[in-house]
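User: Hey, quick favor. My workstation is busy. Could you predict this chain's structure for me?
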Amino acid sequence: MSDFFGIISRKKQPIQEAWLVNTQRALATWKPDESDILCKAHVGLGQNTLRITPESYFEHLPQSRQHLSIVANARIDNRDELLKLLEVPKAEVITDASIILTAYQKWGTGCADRLIGEFAFAIWDEQEQNLFCAKDALGIRPLYYHADSEFLIVSTEIKGIFASGLAPKRLNKLMLAVHLSAYKAEQAQTVYDNVLSLRGGHWLLYKNGTIRTARYWNPTIKPELRLSNNREYEEAFSEKLQLAVKRRMRAVGAVGSLMSGGLDSTAITGIALKENPDKPLSIQSWAYAEDTVQDLPDDRPYVEEFLKFHGPGNYQHAYIHGLDGYFKYLPHFQSYSDQPYLDMELPARFNSYEQFQKDNVRLILSGTGGDQFATYNAFEYPFHLLSQSRFLKLFKTLQSIRKQEINTWKNTIARHLVYPYRAVRAGQEPWGRGHPHAGRNFLDQRAGKLFVNPQLLKETSFTEFIRDHEALRNLPSALDNPLKNGLLMNLHYSGMEISFNQRYNLSQAYQMQYTYPMLDRDLVSFLLSLPVDQFHQHGFGRSMVRRSMRKFVPQKISLKKEKIGSAPFIRNIRDRDLPWVFDQFEQWKNHPIIADTVDLELFGRHLNDLKSGNHTTDRFYVRTVFLCNFLHKSFN
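Assistant: No problem, here it is.
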């Protein structure tokens, strides 16, 4: 994990060293292992490096070779394949940045599509006078850019855009409204005006005074992979997930794992234990005090079953207790993020980071990605069968679901057919995205919940933005394949990348880095190619993962139905943090930017309803608190 930046004078004026030094210092909110800058006339590059892989200890960035210079935050997973294709002579150590530079020399802008891993990089070509940047396929590593008539600035953090003083810091009012509405935008825009995020699977090229971006990885849902039987599908999935985990164990020292009692994180941890027994593993699981979870499912029995299943090994396990609240810690955590928080569980990881530090962990395995790409759940699948006119299969599936849910036929049909159909007609996610009616009732659906200042909605043409945004979606009709359509939406949704970036910022403060085996590019491509039926069998969603992970997780977990999710955090928000929110609200009311952005009168009524017990918390309330805290912290 590393931070880097680049500043280019588009009028070829000399770069001042102070600009580079100030930017590098602004990015060094954590303790880098190495820092350096490179200044070449009208171009400046800088890097703060955290060493995680064995090869990174031999990496010195910025790195120059002939007329090329590179800065990078990268872990390349298909190293052996690339070294063979690039015909690189054998050497004791070949760094990931060197591989990227060699790939660029051979394939130019086509190099990005050849790279498998998690990366963001920038290459300055002195001879051609161009800058080439690229991000990994899923957008896990951050990269932002700002361009005006004078300068092009790129940085792995937004604060790096503003630190030199060359870019004005202005808010993007439209994106503030988008944040409050919880609309799943697919925009490169951020909450700052003229600061854009280079999206996952894209590259950027600055050449001859012009800036061009293009998508280099454009996954599709066709053609479907056809194998002979279920066992072949299971073996293929297991092989790819094991490879994804193995690729990410390339770290010096211990590896950490954030493991709940759920299927994805236990499968990844189980693979790490069985397939990499010599690598020390620090496993952290969340536990919640009884007064916090109350009637909610408790993951601890599943965690204990997992530990019993694997027995003694080269690992240590600890339970991490949730924070005694949530929102009241936001002012501290907001200092690590340049945008309002989206990930509701993120700050609650604070205690895990402290424990990982004690265990000398720099790399954290996460199960994120399973919900997005390995799941077609029972709620969606029957509607898919109905849309395909597969009536016999539909009847058998509903029968299995009814048995698993211990429900009546009436309730089962209502839950799995009637409600999804209404969602499609109303344009709600995920089934309605791309449908002709999508977005038509967006504001009506959020009446009384959308705490956006009405004047801001008018100023930003918010309704027109939603209408135009929906029209631009180049996705198959939700009625053709609602489930696969939902998966593609996860790839296009920029909120997932924002969440990645915020995890990146917060873990970086503790000199750590997340990695996501379930988001391995090869694995995601494989999952997108599978027939839908492989994901739902015998009344169970996520059937593929359940069947193929028997070697790595106990049966109790593979058959688990309940999921804790964010429920404990929501309870904390409602029951423990409300006094803090009321106290902050008095300050927010006097903040001019917040008053211009948020409908404070409506939000105040909502707070009073919460206090009296006449309302429950929801994502609109949570996002409003996130945004108010962000604006109060960043523009006070």
